Amino acid sequence: MTGSRYQVYLAALPEVCAADPALMAFTADADGRCEVFAWDATTGRARQVTDRPRGTLHGTIDRDANVWWFDEDAHGAGRWRFQPFRGGPDLPGLTGVPPGTPRGLAVSDDGTVAMGLGDGRTTTVHLGRRGGSAHEVTRVDRHATLSGITAAAGLLAISGPAGSAHAVTVLAADGTPRAVLSGAGDHGRLWSLGFAPTAARDELLLVREDDDRYLLASWRPETGIRTYPWCAFDSEITARWYPDGGGGGGEVGGEGEDKGRTVLVREDRHGRSTLHRARLDTGTLTRVPTPPGSLLDAAPRAGGDVHYLWTDTAHPPRMHSTAGTALPALGTVPGRVPGDHRDLWTPTPDGPVHTWLSLPEGTGFPEGHGLPEGQASEGQAPDVQAPDAQAPDAQAPENRASESRAPEGRGAPPPVVFLVHGGPADHDRDAYDGVVHSLVASGFAVARVNYRGSTGYGPRWRRAFGAGVGLTQVEDLVAVRADLIGRGLVRPDAVGLWGTSWGGYLALLALGTRPGLWQAGVAVKPVADGVAAYRTTTSALRALDERLYGGTPDDVPEAYARSSPIHYASHVRAPLLVVAATRDAKCPPGQVRGYLAALRAAGARHESMWLDSGHDGYEGGDHVAVLRRAVVFLDRELRGTRGGRGTRSERGTQNGPGTYGAYGPQRDPKTPPADRRGDSGRVRTTAAAGTGTAEHTERRTTHAEGHHPQRPA
Fold this sequence. Notes:
By secondary structure, this protein is of the alpha+beta class. It contains eleven helices and 37 strands.
């Protein structure tokens, strides 16, 4: 950081050069924006590689120690470029390639480059020698992602939607299809995690959904798909090949017949993470010890080393190496953050909803309220009864609110802000969040609810949309609100909502459909009009909407209308702050303007704030501006203070954290989301395998099925 009051960081590990693991590339703060750096673990020195006015997010390193990044314009379109590790001219990755949005980069051991680029509705894959001319390998009329290349550049893997008949397509280097792997029907959804990092065989690592489990699998030309039933998990996983078969002996691997067929598996379950080493030849699964909390990223390295990025709610992310390799420091706040951080469970018709609750110092959990940290992650969701076992109606929470009281020996309960995660294929976890830090330091309680549809609780929870898109999730927010009030943990007359992207959509929908329950709302870059958003958003999000709703707005107009916030704009009663971006391709500005017009026509009290950016900005200044505006707004509306110099919320923001995730608060991986799941010896970009929602084109992900970066949390 040079000259800025704050820093930004990307919650992801450095990418490592396969030929020299001491050479790495990572993304970090450069005067308040994200830029790509080269890191030499031997000397402990970093060199800034990129310097772009709006920052740079996508960066990686190939086997020959060239540092790559995506040079994009304000609308997200651009080209891949690279530079030698020690410095030199910026060079085009391939020549003759038109600009587009990034949908995958892969570099083989011999310097053959494959890159996927999108133009809105189609995806094109280009191939050529690094720095040389490109030729088009394939073009598909849908959103797809390049998810891997073999070490000898003989095969490419293209990922489509995980539940489609073309979940994974394997192509020869000339574009000839070698295999089309289905994730539709009885087969179960399928994700591609990259080719084995060896020229000795061509093997593609996969994850298969099977009923209510996720299984590790692989594909080889001579055998087809093989699943490993002994390596099954009941919540989302991702996996990466060990670059040398997990060698190094002891706890982290060994030599012999397993060489090249060992993978590191990361599971996110109930908001916390575990690591496992799976030996595909011997059928053994071994736990890799890590501290309790969340692993935002984890990667096996040469010699049995494992790098992982650990955090919990009270501690900002820290990078670790099991072999003691020097890793660059993240620009996060030191030590433990304030507050009492626990989790609790609230019953719903489909099972208990898990909430991460953070309370200001001095208003923590009394005996018997909530759970000790870490308890819930080791077993099934506990049988915790709310005041009413069913999701309450609009009046029930308010009736119970009058009876709530502070737990004995505690002060008056604080106002609470529901920080609603995006996705829906995402979840809140036991992880540091800069917005939680700021709110708790300002005297607010914060509730982060993993509503139905969230990842981390198994496929059935993901599919539980019984009341309708968005409406099911609002039911869960309402149920948790009643539970917190009934426990006497929060003020019943000071409940706010704050969501970004799909979380902003849920905040608007809750304010309109259950208007008597909330006293303030903040919606950042939201979906405000479902039909208008569908007409103008990206192809990946149109596909997501069609899957969620069961068709297009022309096919099922009543479903879109019933779940669209603009349909309820006239019912909004709580004051509302709407933040939008003028170049937002995912939650486009036009549909937000239409919603604001509907609020004005209804006489609803609201404010708006416009950013000159896209959906995923890389500049910390925007995030700081939104944070400051939102906290002051919530302070005024939930505590009755008036904004301006010296308000409690403004003091809390200034004295709170000076570090923010690359997308504002860290949700992920976001899960977040360059994603190179499994292609250990070569380079891939943030474009991930096809998921059940949409492909990960602009953010690192932490799950085989998980973060939906098109609408990030």
